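Sequence only, no structure available. Ideas?
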Amino acid sequence: MAGKQGNISRMAMKAMGLFGGVQVMGILCSIIRTKLVAMWIGPVGTGLFGLYNNALEMISTGTNLGIRSSSVRDISQACAGSDKGLVAGIVTVVRKWSLWLGLAGALLTLAMAPLLSQVTFGDGMHIWGFVALSVAVLLQALTNGEYAVLQGSARLKRLASVTLWGTIAGLAVSIPLFYLLRERSILPSIIAYAVAMAAFAWLFRNRDYPAVKVSRRETFDMGKGFVRLGIFMTLGNFASILASYAFNAWLNINAGTEMVGFYQAGYTLINKYTGLILTALGMEYYPRLSRIADSRIRLRAFVSQEINVSIAVMAPVVALFILLRELVVWILYTPEYNVIITFVSWGMIGTVLRTLSWCLAFTILAKGDGKTYLWTEVASAVINLVLNIVFYQWWGLTGLGIAFLVSYLLYTIIIAVVYFKVYKLKVTIASLYNLLWTLVVASAVMIAMETGHTVVAAVITAVSIAVAVRQILILWKR
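Reply:
I predicted one. C-alpha cells follow.
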C-alpha cells in the first residue's frame, strides 16, 4: 500500500507542477492587471470588475447546468474503458450541450439586462453593459465544454496550454484598454479575456475523438446522466454565486463601490490566489477519484494522500502570506488598500480549513451524489452570506475575514459529517496531524504579526517551510 500511496502522491504533485507553473503565470497576469486597475482606475475600477465578474459568474453558473464539472466524471469513466466510440459520442454530446446552454445563457442575459442593472447599481444606466456581457456568457460556455473534454480525457498539458495562452492574450489586449478607456475599459477587458480563452480552447481542443452523428434523442439520452448531476451542481454553485452577488450588491448600496473594491481586493488575495493551488491539484484529483468512486479502500487512500499533499503545499503559502501581507498588498495594489491587511490575515487561516473541506467534498462529486452536493452548498452559501453581513456590521472589513474563517469552519464540519457518517469513509491520523500543525502555524504567525513580533513570525514561517519541504520529499519517495 505504501508504494501505491507514493504513486498517488507523485501523480498529484506532477499535476500540481504542471498546472502550478500555469497558475503562477496566471497569478502574474492577475497581479499586473490588478495593479494597473488600481493605479489607473482606483478602487472604483476594482469594484466594477468585481460586480461585472460576479454577474458573469452567476449567469454562467445558472445556465451551464454544471457541465464543466459533471461531464468530467462521465468522460473519465468512459476513457477508462476501451470503447472509443462511446467516448467520441459523449464528447460530441458535451459539446452540443455546451453550445445550446451558452446560447440560452446569452439570451437570458439580454432579457435580464434592465433588472441586473437595477439590482447591481440601483439604476438603469448600465443596461448596455449587461447586454455586452452576454457575449462573454456564450464564449465561456463553449470554453467550459472544451475544458471538460480535455480534463476528462486526461489531456492535462493541452488544458494547461489553453489556460496559459488565453490568460496572456487576455492581459495583452486589456492593458491598452485600461490606459486609454479607464473606467470604460472594464467590460471590454472582460469580453477580451473571454474571446482569448475561447480561441485557445478551440485551438488546443482534443481532436482524438472527432464529432460523430448523434440524434437529438440520443443527445438527451446520453447527456441525461451528467446533466442530472450538473443540475444539482448548478443549483449548489448558483447558491454560492448568488450569495456572493447579493453581498456585493448589498455592500455597494450600503457602503459604496469603493468598499466593494476593498472587499474584492481582499477576497481575491484570500480565495482566488490560494485557490489556484487547489485548482491545480484538482485537475488530476477529480478524474482519478471518479474512476475509483466505488472502492472504499482506494477512496480512503486517495483522499488521505491528497490531504497530505495539499496541506504540505498550503502550509508555507499561508504562513508566508501572513508574514509578508503588507508587502503583498503594496505590490498588488496601492497604500490605499492597507485597510484590508487584517481582513486578509483572518481569511488566510480559513484557507487551511478550506483545503481540508475541498479534499473531502470531491468525494460527493466522484460518487455522483447530486442531492448531497446541493444541500451542502446551499447551507454553505446561506452561512457565508449571513456571517458576511452580520460581521461587517460589527467589525467592518476585519469582520469579513473572521466571517471567512468561521464559515469554512462550519462548512468543514458539514462536509466531515457527510464523509465520515454518511459515506462511512476515513482518513489517516497523519492527515489530521498535518492539518492541526498547519492551523497552529498559521494562527501563531498571525498573532505574532498582530502583536508586532515580526522576527518571531519569520522564524515560525521558516520552520513551516522546512517541515513542508520534508513532508513533500517523504511523500514523493514512498
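The chain has two domains: 1-24+256-478, 41-238.
Hope that gets you unstuck.
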